[in-house]
Design a protein that fits this description.
Elements (H helix, E strand, L loop, with lengths): L1 H6 L1 H40 L1 H4 L7 E3 L9 H7 L3 E2 L6 E7 L3 H11 L5 E7 L26 E6 L12 H18 L7 E4 L4 E3 L1 H9 E2 L4 E10 L5 E6 L3 E4 L14 E11 L5 H10 L14 H10 L13 H7 L14 H5 L22
Parallel strand pairs: 1-12, 3-4, 3-6, 4-5, 9-12
Antiparallel strand pairs: 2-8, 6-11, 7-12, 9-10, 9-11
The chain binds 2-acetamido-2-deoxy-beta-D-glucopyranose (NAG) (2 copies).
The site of one 2-acetamido-2-deoxy-beta-D-glucopyranose has 6 residues, from loops.
Length: about 375
């Protein structure tokens, strides 16, 4: 009995000493791991907790969109609560162009019958102030089919001084300012329709017909576009809203931001990073307004990019930007593949061989034009 009693306290003492050493060891291991984790995955962690620190913007009011093949314009206008015009409106399609030649080709062929003027502004620098090739000017013969309708101008960009942290969004907004001048030069007048969008945000022809032929449409509407990533094989959602349609007036200014709460449902396609060559992905990743997302050089290796394009993963290894945990978790991981090539731009389907990379099964890309 006694020996037992005598031995009992010892293990207790030992067990009291043990936890501190064990805890210290654990902390010594965990703290650096956490710090390294936060350093490497800081964006992921902050995006994961975004639903806690960020509030969603005011939701849009959706305008229902009615369409079926071969239904008369008169009937379609009335379904929207609008009325048929005796004359169609003129449509001006204005884009600030970077280098998306294939998207431009599809866009202009698709919209050609409805558009009065294709207004295109391109800069000799990127938004981040890097000198940039004039991709449209040097490929203009590819677009000679639209020659009569093109109003093109070059924006004289400024090269960023190395080290000066110039805000890419400032340069972007300056370019949008000079777009207003080009529109006037192109002959836009009050009452015309002005489309403000990026090259890869393509309104559908039946959307343009409604804008053209119906009286009573709201003076400004955002266009809700089906969002695709890398090709039409990866439909993401209906979240694209930046494109907008305006009835041009004295106060209309070219912008690519939220301008009204109204959004016209299912009004076209937005194909992000839908490029033919791997080099174009590299260019876009380094040149556009989110270049700071390229956190490591290895993000730009061709084999990594090719892998991601085929899997539907994220090029910047980021989490989706969502405002609720439910949406965030739903969108985490790869984008599911779709085998549907229905309800896509007609020009794309008519020229399916030329645009194989945008259609189901076409995810493999050549590195660049020279390696074909
Ligand atoms: C579409 O309408 C035209 C005339 O309005 C008619 O000739 C044609 O058969 C219709 N097509 C279909 C598929 O219903
Ligand atoms: C861009 O164009 C302007 C006007 O032609 C010129 O002054 C400027 O040097 C050009 N910048 C680059 C990077 O080529």
């Amino acid at each position: 009995m006694f020996p037992l009693r005598g031995t009992v306290p010892r293990p207790r003492l030992n067990s009291r000493r043990k936890p501190p050493t064990f805890l210290c060891m654990l902390l010594l291991l965990l703290v650096p791991i956490c710090l390294i984790g936060i350093f490497i995955h800081g964006q992921k962690i902050s995006y994961f907790f975004r639903p806690l620190w960020d509030n969603p913007p005011v939701p849009f009011t959706s305008i229902p969109h009615y369409y079926a093949e071969n239904v008369s314009m008169d009937h379609l206008c009335h379904l929207h609560g609008w009325s048929l015009r005796p004359q169609p409106r003129r449509i001006f399609d204005a884009i600030i162009f970077s280098h998306e030649l294939d998207m431009l080709d599809i866009r202009w062929h698709e919209l050609y019958p409805y558009v009065t003027k294709f207004v295109i502004l391109e800069s000799n620098t990127t938004f981040t102030g890097i000198p940039k090739h004039l991709f449209f000017a040097s490929n203009h013969e590819r677009f000679s089919f639209a020659k009569q309708k093109i109003a093109h101008d070059i924006y004289p960009g400024r090269v960023a001084v190395p080290g000066s942290n110039e805000d890419p969004f400032v340069l972007e907004s300056k370019q949008r300012g000079s777009m207003n001048a080009l529109l006037t030069h192109a002959g836009i007048s009050n009452g015309d329709i002005l489309l403000m969008s990026d090259t890869d945000e393509i309104p559908s022809p039946h959307t343009l017909k409604l804008l053209q032929w119906c009286d009573g449409i709201p003076p400004i509407m955002h266009l809700e576009l089906r969002h695709y990533m890398y090709s039409f094989e990866f439909p993401v959602d209906y979240s694209s809203w930046r494109a907008s349609a305006h009835v041009y007036g004295p106060r209309t200014l070219y912008r690519h931001s939220r301008q009204t709460n109204l959004i016209f449902s299912d009004a076209g396609w937005h194909c992000s990073f839908c490029f033919r060559y791997i080099e174009e992905f590299v260019f876009k990743m380094t040149a556009y307004s989110h270049a700071d997302r390229v956190r490591r050089k290895s993000f730009l290796t061709h084999s990594r990019i090719q892998n991601i394009i085929c899997k539907g993963d994220d090029l910047f290894d980021m989490l989706p930007e969502e405002y609720s945990f439910r949406e965030l978790i739903k969108k985490m991981g790869s984008i599911p593949l779709s085998a549907s090539a229905v309800h896509l731009p007609a020009y794309l389907i008519e020229n399916a061989h030329k645009f194989k990379f945008l259609l189901p099964g076409g995810c493999l890309r050549p590195p660049d034009q020279t390696n074909l």
